[in-house]
Write a structure and sequence with these properties.
The structure is a homodimer.
Chain A: H1 3-10, H2 14-22, H3 29-42, H4 48-55, E1 60-65, H5 74-89, E2 93-98, H6 105-112, E3 118-121, H7 129-137, E4 141-144, E5 154-158, H8 160-173, E6 178-182, H9 186-190, H10 194-210, E7 213-217, H11 223-236, E8 242-245, H12 251-260, E9 270-276, H13 277-282, E10 288-292, H14 294-310, E11 318-321, E12 325-326
Parallel strand pairs in A: 1-2, 1-3, 3-4, 4-5, 5-11, 6-7, 6-8, 8-9, 9-10
Antiparallel strand pairs in A: 10-12
Helix pairs in contact in A: 1-2, 1-3, 2-3, 5-14, 8-10, 11-12
Chain A binds a DNA duplex (16 and 16 nucleotides) through helix 2 and helix 4.
Chain lengths: ~325, ~325
DNA sequence: TTGTATGCGTTATCAG
DNA sequence: CTGATAACGCATACAA
């Protein structure tokens, strides 16, 4: 069933049906009524593909997520959910594309076949070929995270350097002298993953500033890795009394390793870091942490993208979020 | 840039470009070469929208996920990831639609605007109006889970009744006499959510069969609810020595409540249930559980959907998965 | 081996 | 206030 069928049954022309639906030109109320009745009876809705072809826009945005193999973290999941939600609120559909490798058929379809009006690019690398690809193709996009060179793109990011610096200062204020940063996987760090790099910078800066003894260790995105990581840390670094982490998936393992070592949090050992709020609250004891506002980020990313789409020539915008550190119960004065 | 531009630059007609690309009719190798050179130079890819309009199919499938508000469980997340992955392997894109309420704009767009070739419907209810809606619209679809009446649809599901029955029998064999089933939220059970209902049936059957004392309790999908749930259970039912659960999100809380009560797993208390494999393995001690094969389900769901799309009149197919119970370390003989 | 012409379902322009 | 008609970009039946 199509607009012609409706027109035929209502005894009007196709354009009248179209205008009755869009309201873009006056239609006699009697005519409109007749048309609407037919539409209601048959449950007609304009075909999205034909409309997209005619209008030159798809009312769809692409969301490029990390490849499916790597399990998404809660933070990432919350972000995806909030993007889908924010998009739905403005009647936009979301096309999912798992991408990461340089050559990716799904990503290529997205950028060069005109399937979407714009793209949200998650998990951006400091050097990310996809950014150039999108720019060359002229597809509006916003990055979650930003590249090293910035490249005149719009992005929204979390100030990992600042947050980790804050965390370390907080630990220093509590008297901790020997602290570790548990970061993301060695592969990710090597690949130039921004948050990991910047967290490392913030850590180094704060450690230097306060004259602490700081150890940075990579850690896989799962509980087991977290456990092994802390076990190794405790084995190799006596006098360690606190860790800060940006690896939320490792938290359950971190917790476990400490419990196994007979260390009570926060009396014997302090933990702090950057994590999704529910994750921090579910931790035991509740985690003193910067709560990544994933939901807010999703909303803002969609808003930013809409701006890029409607005003491609406007100067790109950047949003750097620095959520406050929520003081909960996982940090305390260092034992003397 | 479009096919006409390529044709012009290569000095051939549009159809020749089209055929050079599709290979659906012979093209002189010299001509093909010339066309290909222009295409490579300009990086041309046929517009997906125009192609979809012409061909009558979008090469896109819809994935209807639970509304964003409710955080997805790991099982669901794994499923989404595997669907996206399986779809990408056959060059299909995935359109995400958060739906649940009866009236949902995003869902309506999906079914009535021809945006997708077919739909995978997650989190199906025993009575689910969306099933009728899809059938009325003539959109091929497969359900994850099935309705009460079956309604001649294709679906893939996990045999929750059978799995819970197995779990309870296992506990009975170990000498447990008083056991509880921790199911999903009261709302979900009330709404006629299949897995919860069927788990309840399996539980009741096994309890009766073995002459046990069984308690079924609803529980929200989060750690906190799990904790409160077990606390209440321990308070109200002395002599309880084991629980089985289909609520994987509650597991961390269940674990915590038992630890707080000074009960060691599995020596003082046994736990078993249905969960994603990584979840079960990350549990401490590793959970004796039926590992829901979410990845396999995603792949099979896509395959099933492809069949519905290519052969709409073929009889619908059903796949009921009964993963084996992996014996790990969370169950032991009841203390006497 | 190649070119021309048509139609997919819309929206919007141009006439009336 | 309404109707005929031309695009949007592509694939394909029909002609040559």
């Amino acid at each position: 069933m199509n607009i012609g069928e409706i027109a035929r049954r209502a005894g009007v022309s196709r354009s009248t049906v179209s205008y009755a639906l869009s309201g873009k030109r006056p239609v006699a109320s009697s005519t409109r009524r007749r048309v609407q009745d037919v539409i209601d009876e048959l449950g007609y809705r304009p075909n999205a593909t034909a409309r997209a072809l005619k209008e030159g826009r798809t009312r769809t945005i692409g969301l490029v997520i990390p490849p499916a193999g790597n399990r998404l973290t809660h933070m990432q999941l919350d972000f995806v959910a909030s993007v889908v939600d924010a998009a739905a609120r403005v009647d936009l559909d979301v096309l999912l594309s798992p991408s990461g490798e340089d050559h990716d058929r799904s990503f290529e379809r997205l950028v060069s076949e005109g399937r979407v009006d714009g793209v949200i690019l998650m998990e951006i690398r400091l050097e990310d070929p996809r950014v150039g690809r999108l720019q060359a193709a002229g597809v509006p996009f916003v990055g979650i995270g930003h590249t090293a060179g910035d490249q005149g793109m719009s992005w929204i990011d979390v100030d990992y350097a600042g947050l980790v610096r804050h965390c370390v200062r907080h630990l220093a204020d509590l008297g901790h002298r020997r602290v570790a940063l548990i970061t993301r996987s060695a592969e990710l760090v090597a690949a130039g993953y921004g948050p990991a790099r910047r967290a490392g910078e913030g850590f180094a800066a704060a450690v230097a500033e306060r004259g602490l003894d700081g150890i940075e260790v990579p850690c896989g995105d799962d509980a087991r890795s977290g456990q092994e990581c802390v076990e190794a840390l405790l084995r190799g670094h006596s006098g360690l009394t606190a860790v800060t982490t940006i690896n939320e998936a490792a938290l359950p393992g971190i917790q476990r390793a400490l419990a196994d070592a007979g260390l009570a949090v926060p009396y014997d050992f302090s933990i702090t870091g950057v994590a999704a709020r529910t994750w921090a609250e579910d931790f035991r004891p509740p985690l003193t942490a910067a709560d990544v506002p994933a939901l807010e980020m999703g909303e803002k990313a969609v808003a930013l993208l809409m701006q890029r789409i409607t005003a491609p020539d406007a100067p790109p915008r950047h949003i750097l979020l620095t959520p406050p550190i929520s003081l909960r119960s996982s940090t305390a004065a260092a034992r003397t």
